[in-house]
Structures are given as structure tokens and as C-alpha cells.
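Subgroup meeting minutes
Present: P.N., E.W., G.H.
Scribe: E.W.

1. P.N. recapped why we're keeping a running log of single-chain structure predictions: easier to compare across weeks, and new members can see raw inputs and outputs side by side.
2. G.H. added today's entry (252 aa).
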Amino acid sequence: MTGTPLAARLARADALPGATELREATYELLRCGPGDRALDVGCGGGRAVAELCARGVRAVGADRDPSMLAIARELAPAPEFVEADVLRLPFPDGEFRGYRADKVLHELADPAAAVAEARRVLAPGGRVVLCGQDWDTLVLDSDRPALTRAIVHARADAIAGPRVARQYRTLLVDAGFAEIAVEVRTLVDTDGSLLPLLDGLAAAARTAGVATGGQVDGWLAEQSARAAAGRFFLAVPIFVASATVPSTVDDQ
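Output recorded in log:
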């Protein structure tokens, strides 16, 4: 399984400069210690679950994609992984001390329902951490800035919630969380590790008709040439929001 294209793509993303530090920052924000039960929704390949378990946390990974869970179980066979919908989690009220959702909410038509579900499964005093990019703010160096802007926005418009990251604070307020904090951390790729990401942008641009096939092909060729010449630059600002479930009514 570790030799599949999907596993290779996950490994490239994990190896990006700043990716490890970003994951570790989300663990610190969870404030979960040994023995605490924490849920990682949209767990993907299970890297975060494995790393949380290494800290002594009783981490559970949930994902709706069986192929992702297969990779996760190979990476970390001991922890618990479940196939589940983030809007209908198969856990009782107050089951967890921590809830983590990394690059998940932008895929949902109703992110508010997911945040409400996070509140339900968290115990009083429990912590939620939401992490993800605003798809309008991918920063890519190019000799064709207007075309790049059109392509980035075409990809954003093809996503259910491309700008949900800028809404994290409001979603947490509306769900009744307290101690809400938001920060931004930026992942930077200068060696072309994320070139495959541009294929998705290009496909969306073709579908939306924002550029001709020749223009899109030329744009991709330019980025490949930049990577080969050491001139590639892609920055992805990642928004990280954290909050606490009030312990009492007075805390709200």
C-alpha cells in the first residue's frame, strides 16, 4: 500500500518544509495529554493519529474514504480507525477531550453542521482545532500573473467551501465555543514537490473555460520549467483556529 500513488502524494505533503511543525502546533493546541481521548476527523493517511498516539494520547482516526483508512492502518496499526461521516460521527456525546480537523471543512457543503457535531462529541473543557487553507489565497510565482489568478480562482470555485478557513472563528462562535484563537502559518514549496497540485488547478481552469487548453498547457510547462531551474515558488497560508468547550454556562 505504501507504494501506491496516493501514499506517495501523502508522503510528499508530509515532507513539505513547515508541515511537521504545523502538525505539532495543532497537537499543542489540542492540549491533550497521556490517556486523553482525541478524535482526528478526515485523518487521511493517519500521520497525525500515529504521532498523537506516540505522545500517549488515545487517538482515534475517522475518514469517509476506505482507501485512506487502508493506508492509515498500515502506518499505525495499533490506533483505532473508523469509516465515518464528519456530520454524523458514531460516538456518544462528550466522548473526546480533543477534536482535530485538518483540511476537511472546505470539502463540506455545511461546515457549520460539522462544527456543531464537534461540539457534541467533545466533553466540557475539551478542545477543538480546525486547520486548512483559503483556496483563494494560494500564492504562486509566474510570468503570467493574470492567468495564474484566473486559474487559482477557477479551482477555488470548484470546491464546496473554498473560503471556509476565513470563517473558522465565526463558525466556532456560532457553535458556542469559548477561548477562540486564530493564527496563520505558511507552507512554502520551492523545489516543486507540489507540482501535482497544479494539475488539479489546470483541470478546473479547463472545465470552467477561463483559459484555452493551449494557455493552460503553457502555464503548466512554465511551472515545470521553473521547478527544473530552481525558480519554483508556491506559498500556502494555513489558517489554524482553536477553541474550548465551556465547562459551565458562565464560561460561555
